[in-house]
């Protein structure tokens, strides 16, 4: 449509064992006002056919500072037993006038692929725990099927590796569920990195 442009960037995909959910960033320009950034959710069956998942399966409607020709978000997606987990952050520099950028967001999404605003929460709090502004601060997720919990890790603003555990279907971990990797107890003795850390789950048999 004239004056309206939409681009898909950096899709992430997860499967519940039956079908697939794909999350894609989209940039939108309405011809007037600021550009916007969205996350579009789409479901596909095992043959690759699109499954209807609601008329408006979108998340993260915020003003966009990047060009429409470049991606503005870092995302990861996993299946967590009976729902999907999506984590994302903006790649733009921190905007002191906005509480949304570049804080990390975390969402619980039903198997239908239709997001519920009540199940979206901010992960970071405080300047030290804020995610790093560029792509190296993009989140990474892994699901522990044995214990029904999800691990979220990311590079923080001062290059520490932050890790957060979410039990069951919760989107709000307790303070004790947050920790620094590398044996550090504070932000002066943690594991430092200049790269995006990645999470993975490896099942281990009980002894």
Structure description:
With 207 residues, the protein is mostly beta strands. It contains no helices and 13 strands. The chain has strands spanning 5-15, 20-29, 36-44, 50-51, 58-63, 73-79, 83-90, 105-110, 120-122, 140-144, 149-155, 161-167, 178-180. The strands form 3 sheets. Strands 1, 2, 3, 4 and 5 form a 5-stranded antiparallel sheet that branches. A 4-stranded antiparallel sheet has the order 6-7-8-9, with no helix packed on it. A 4-stranded antiparallel sheet has the order 10-11-12-13, with no helix packed on it. A hairpin with a 3-residue loop joins strand 6 and strand 7. The protein is globular and about 45 Å long. The model has no long low-confidence stretch (mean pLDDT 77).
What is the string of SSEs from the N terminus onward?
EEEEEEEEEEEEE
| Rough outline | globular
The total of helices stands at: 0
Q: Over all CA atoms, what is the radius of gyration?
A: 17 Å
Structural class: mainly beta
State the share of residues found in helices, binned by percent. under 10%
Q: Give start-end ranges of low-pLDDT stretches.
A: none
Largest sheet: 5 strands, antiparallel
N-end to C-end Cα span = 61 Å
Average pLDDT level: 77
User: Using DSSP, what is the number of strands?
Assistant: 13
Q: What proportion of the residues form beta strands (DSSP E)? A: 35-45%
